[in-house]
Amino acid sequence: MLPYKLRIMKKIISIIVLISLGVFTSCNKDVLNKRPLSIISDEDVFTDPALINAYLTQVYAEMTFLGNDCSGIGQQGDAAWNAFDINDVSDESFPQWRDWNPSNAFTYKYGNLTINGGLLDWWGYGVIRKINEFLEKLPASPLSEEEIKAKLAEARFLRAFCYFAMVKRYGGVPLITAVQQISDPQDELYPPRATEQQVYDFIISEMDACANDLPEVVNGDNIGRPSKYAALALKSRAALYAGSIAQFGSVELNGVVGIPANLAKTYYQQSYDASQAIIESGKYALYNADADKTTNFRNIFLVKNHSEVIFAKRHDSMNQMSGGNGWCVDFFNCPRPQAWARGLYEQAYLEFAESFEYVDGSPGKLDRNTLPNKLLTTEELWGSRDPRFYATFYTQNTLWKGSQLDFHAGIRLPNGTIKTDGSYNGIPATGEQDYQGTGIGVLKYLDENHDNMAGANSGWATSAQDWLIFRYAEILLNHAEAAFELGNTADALSSINQIRTRAGIAVLNSVSRDQIHNERKVELAFEGHRYWDVRRWRTAVKELSVRWSGIRYILDAASGKYQIQIINNVDGASNIPQFRNENYYLPITNGRTANNPKLVENPGY
């Protein structure tokens, strides 16, 4: 999480190794009587403040889900394409490299999730053991009482976040809060799954217990670590999830999955209260530094440490594949030119783009019946949209690095035929961008100053943008949803309209559940929320089992306008998106249930 501390840890270990080598060469006759100094014991760690920090930093590094719900590190994490799986398994986008597609989402999106698992898998008990050891041993360290209290709170926050990452995947999981020893009774070594309610209650109670021991504000070397308000943000999110699961889900396996419906309002109230505390603190505000609404929304994800950031995974421009802490968003998602002559890895579905309203608040759905019969400019096609549309997507004629992007896929000649090869009057028949995908790229998080021609030999993980785990806009959206479900439509409307006003779109006079859900869909697009949201609302079977479409631009030679073609079933004829009812929970998997027979498998697998 904090790369400079990882480097400190490596330096400390290197120094210890060098010291040990020096001892061996100068005093080798006594070496068999000495403890090897190249081995750092637990006793050593918890007597040295630098090693204590390094230990906790390693915990962050192993919480790989903090990088957009990735399952691993390096090429299994946010250094490569797995950073986008959470978006591509939803209705936002799909990974469109047709000859080579490494994404897990590409397989599991089409109904192929089985008991063997593999999608977004994160079973974090190795990390939880490290945190439990930290919580047990830190109180005896030489740190001051105040430092110990703050670091214990930080560790509890991280442990609760680990459990949140698992409960939203699997439902109830074993709650292990002490270090297990091989001599422990079998019942303790192989615990059963707790109920889903018990896990959510644990997360919420831990945030209540540790929030006030965390700093109100983090700065300097501590940016990237949790504050009091990060704990409240986790409570806000987790309680909202629990409330909607109780409201829309069903209880199975004696509560191992599902939460009783009569608890929904209790959880919504807890989420509302946590969000309200963040709002009333005055510590955060919607980012609003730029007069142009599109530029302003883009800069939320490019400017660091601004008023909206509550908790972030920090990145630098050093290649993660070589020990740095960069990530890969620019290299994979950029338009061409790109070092592999690819780019555009994630391509957004047309239906998702249509979720963005016009600035007057009218629906953004295109008229597909009349569209192919018209010749349009891109301004006529996409003009007057919610400014967030232009900050989230790029498509035909989007300005990028001083030039307009060209996705056109053929030239319409004066006789009405379409030329798809060569050129006409000096104009190439096809543009330089990938016109065989959806025709809509993902602009959010992209930095136009990044060098996307320097990505050969795994050198792509150099994007420096921080990943925003909690931001103030989400808190307003959580607040609105919880308020609405509690019957407080006035607060729900107020929070939604704050978001819309910042975006530059007409405010609402009243608000419905569908409008709240769509506002969340638009504001948080490609931030790793959509897949989990439709699961907790229990709408995924309907919303993720859809044959989505893309768009093609045919350049009209005479007018310079475009004939628009809708490409149906853009995933491919044999790739049919399918989310089944059992997929509301990921499988525990055969390997885990074989290792611990008390781990009952989730329904349907």
Structural account:
With 605 residues, the chain is α+β, with helices and mostly antiparallel strands. It has a domain at 82-120 and 343-456 and 545-578. Helix content is 38%, strand content 8%. Strands 4-15-14-8-9 form a 5-stranded mixed β-sheet. The protein has a two-stranded antiparallel ribbon with strand order 1-3. A two-stranded antiparallel sheet has the order 2-13. A hairpin with a 5-residue loop joins strand 14 and strand 15 (562-567). Helix 7 (145-170) runs antiparallel to helix 9, helix 7 runs parallel beside helix 10 and helix 11 (264-281) runs antiparallel to helix 17 (472-485). It is globular. The two termini are 35 Å apart. Mean pLDDT is 92; it is low at 1-37.
- Helix content percent band: 25-40%
Quaternary organisation? single chain
Major sheet: 5 strands, mixed
Mean pLDDT: 92
Shape: globular
Radius of gyration: 26 Å
Subcellular location: Cell outer membrane
Domain RagB/SusD: 308-605
Pfam families: SusD-like_3 (PF14322), SusD_RagB (PF07980)
Domain SusD-like N-terminal: 122-239
Summarize the entry for a quick read.
Keywords: Cell outer membrane, Membrane, Signal. By secondary structure, this protein is an alpha+beta fold. Helices cover 38% and strands 8% of the residues.
List keywords for this structure.
about 600 residues; alpha+beta; five-stranded mixed sheet; 22 helices; 15 strands; globular; RagB/SusD family nutrient uptake outer membrane protein; SusD-like_N; signal; cell outer membrane; SusD_RagB_dom
